[in-house]
Amino acid sequence: FTARAAVRTDVTDSSLVEFFRELNAIRDSTVSPVELERARNYIVFGLPGQFETTGQMADQVQELLTFNLPPTYLSTYVGQVMKVTAADVQRVARQYFDPARVHVVVVGDVSRIRPGVEALELGPVTVRDLEGRPVSN
Hints:
The protein is an all-alpha fold and 137 residues long. The chain is 55% helix and 0% strand. The protein has six helices and no strands. It has helices at 12-28, 33-46, 54-66, 73-83, 86-96, 110-119. α1 (12-28) packs across α5 (86-96). The two termini are 30 Å apart. The mean pLDDT is 93.
C-alpha cells in the first residue's frame, strides 16, 4: 500500500514521525468503532464514483481479471466491506505492515530535508535525481 501527504518542507521529519505513529497504532491497537465505521462508509459510498466513466468501468473489469475475481465480486463487495471488524483490521495490519520493510520516498529540497530525515534513523538515505539515478553527496 501507499501512504502519502503533501507537507511543508520544515515539517517533513515530524510528518514522517506522525505517519509511523499512525501506522504502528493500526498494528498495535484496535481501531475505534467510530473510525471503523467512517472507513467502511468511505469505501462503500465512494464505490459508485468508480463507475462514472467508461475508463473507470474498464478499470473495474481489469481488476476482476487481474486478480481472478468472480463476476459476482462487485455485487457482494459492499456486504463484505461492512463485515470487516476491528480485529480484521488489526490482523491484516500485523500481517502486511512491517515497519522494518518500509520504503520512504521524500521529494523536496534535499539540503533542507535530509538532516531531519537522517536524524529519524529510518534507514540508509539515498538521494536520487528525477530519473531515479543515485546522486553523489
